[in-house]
UniProtKB/TrEMBL annotation:
Residues 23-277 form the SET domain. It comes from the Eukaryota. The gene is 106091138. The lineage of its organism: Eukaryota, Metazoa, Ecdysozoa, Arthropoda, Hexapoda. This is SET domain-containing protein. One of its GO terms (molecular function) is S-adenosylmethionine-dependent methyltransferase activity. It comes from Stomoxys calcitrans (Stable fly).
Amino acid sequence: MATPAELARLVDLHLSDLRDPEPNWTIGPSPMAGRGVFATRDIQQGEIIFRERPLVLGPTARKGSILNTCVCCHKLLAVKDFLCKNNCTLPVCDKCSNSEQHRSECQLFQQWKPKDLQINAGNNNNSNNSHASNGNKDGDDCCPVNTMSLRILTAVRVFFLHPDQIALVEAMQANDDKGYRGEIIKAAQCFRNFPTTDKPFMDRLFRVVGVLNTNAFEAPCRMGDHEILLRGLFPLTAVMNHECTPNASHYFDNGRLAVVRAARFIPQGGEVTTTYTKILWSNLTRCIFLKMTKNFMCDCVRCNDNTENGTYLSALFCRAQGCKGIVIPVQTKTLQPDWRCTTCESVFPHSKMARYQDFALNTINNRINKGSVAEMITFINDMCPRFCPSSNYVLVEAKLNVIWRMSRPTTEEFNEDHLKCKERYKEEIVALLEKLGAGDCTLKKLITEEIL
Ligand SMILES: [Zn+2]
Ligand SMILES: [Zn+2]
Ligand SMILES: [Zn+2]
Ligand SMILES: [Zn+2]
């Protein structure tokens, strides 16, 4: 792995004109994990730490993505016949199909000979090659795009970068995950001539796919009326280590620029941190997420406090008869804690409370985005308190959802009461963030300034 100094040199080259002549940060070895970003002097709350463009950008190609989006300029394409005119089978607008930006990847995809999804759809002789097995079953009727070949595009783009940029990708950490090989195999199945026997190429591709899966962000990008998520590798943003209540906030300016600011005061020498989870998730939810996706157990101050700074984001109602108290996990930093009532002190096994938490989660999530905002508000205010403490993160997230829906353009009309509820929810969430010591985090800015 590259030394912090070598990584810093490559990051400087990548930042180019966005590099501050006297940056308030530096890259160094981190006590948290590998390398991290550190303050070279005191950084005040709200101060910009750095800005960076993506080293590489591509479609997320997730389930539910809008696939008829140009992979170069991201504009929404027609519902039919939106593939590249040069038969690379990528969704590309007419203008971009002959652009410099698309040329190399277009030629490479053509060389790999994409399988014709339309023809394969009726061909049952070779079931391994049918596009259903490539994970695009939903899109069969209307959309001849294979999400797996679309997803490999960002990795392919790395091969066409400048050597210094490729060196930067290679200097980044990659988790070792068997799933990444599966991703490549599925992509390879979309082509007749994928170079699967070229071992050096396949090894490099595996490494790049690992780097992307470990480090890439999903950055929202608004194009006119439609908003899409792009998959972007922002190397310096990715070097920041995780803290559940981080001291820096980041947001993506239309998918093209990551802006990182101090959410709180950061003393000289302090490590600049970000969060890999949602800030309002409960201890246990974050713990499970980090273990599953990043394979580590967080040891931050918040993770060591089972009241979570008195926010009780995990709290569920006590199951003991007649008790109206709340139960919270007894132990921290474990995936299977016991739970104890803060009133009657009854202890419950995790399995029982996990079932109860899942019930609350499913009941509430089944209502989100179904029906009107007015119905959601009634549900949150009248129904939820019967089975879920108001501090529980699932209920908090439902309120956040109402705020988002009411802040976006909508045809729904809201009365005085609805607007009051929205304001109350906002105040509650800002107070929660305050308790967590989150400072000027991105979520607070989104709520108070309504940047959406
Ligand atoms: Zn385009
Ligand atoms: Zn093309
Ligand atoms: Zn933590
Ligand atoms: Zn109790």
